[in-house]
Amino acid sequence: QKEVEQNSGPLSVPEGAIASLNCTYSDRGSQSFFWYRQYSGKSPELIMFIYSNGDKEDGRFTAQLNKASQYVSLLIRDSQPSDSATYLCAASMNGNKLVFGAGTILRVKS
Amino acid sequence: GAGVSQSPRYKVAKRGQDVALRCDPISGHVSLFWYQQALGQGPEFLTYFQNEAQLDKSGLPSDRFFAERPEGSVSTLKIQRTQQEDSAVYLCASSSWGGNTEAFFGQGTRLTVV
Predict the structure, then answer these.
(1) Which of residues 31-60 of A touch B (CB under 8 A)?
(2) Nearest chain B Cα to A98, which residue?
(3) Please, what is the end-to-end C-alpha distance for chain B in angstroms?
(4) Which residues of A touch B91 (CB under 8 A)?
(5) Residue B60, phi then psi, degrees to nearest 5
(6) Which residue does chain A place closest to B6, by CA atoms?
(7) Where residue A59 falls among pLDDT bands split at 50, 70, 90?
(8) What pLDDT is stored for residue A90 in this prediction?
(9) DSSP string, B4-66
(10) Which residues of A touch B104 (CB under 8 A)?
């Protein structure tokens, strides 16, 4: 079992819809969680991080964390074709390193 | 600089050749990380520096891989006697001090071993 699991997708949503990306982690010692967006051939770009249970909103993005269920999600409202990318979930235990999932491919159709 | 800078962007090496990849982190960032990303996979941790100290090298796949950051700023990842399985994108990231701070990635070096 990988430490951070994501559905590889692709997840296809129509333009304007809500995209829901999910991630589970196995190490209960993980403290912080990050969502990165990676366009093909580019480096990962940080979207959001979260370390407290509950929701954290930033513009069209909402990160959700449930430590009891070891579950992290990212919601993208009003999805745009430019949101089409691979979304990487990562967990950090003590700030020393990030453990990444394999990523979920999101496709937003216009 | 404004962001993490890596060079070269692309490197083609013949099998058995030694290569050196450079990372220039964001100014003032204490922590520096190296990751390896194979096609279709998420980045895999290689090693971590806090200033000049290499605190974790548990992800280095073999003793052919070596990383240094002698003055606590620029870092070099060296791969000796490259093999085809070393072909990947090597990403460098830096972050400021703190357990919950986010890491910013450079553009990566795409290494192809032929």
Answers:
(1) 31-32, 34, 36, 42-46, 49, 51
(2) B45
(3) 33
(4) 43-44
(5) -65, 125
(6) A43
(7) very high
(8) 94
(9) -EEE-SEEEE-TT--EEEEEE--TT--EEEEEEE-TTS--EEEEEEETTEEEE-TT--STTEE
(10) 46
Evaluate if residue B97 carries a pLDDT over 80. no
Beta strand residue intervals within chain A, DSSP E: 4-6, 11-14, 19-25, 32-38, 45-50, 54-58, 61-66, 71-76, 85-92, 98-100, 104-109
pLDDT in tens, A26-57: 999 898 999 999 999 999 999 999 989 999 99
Site of tokens 């992800």: B59
What DSSP character marks residue B99? T
Q: B102, A34: Cβ pair inside 8 Å? A: yes
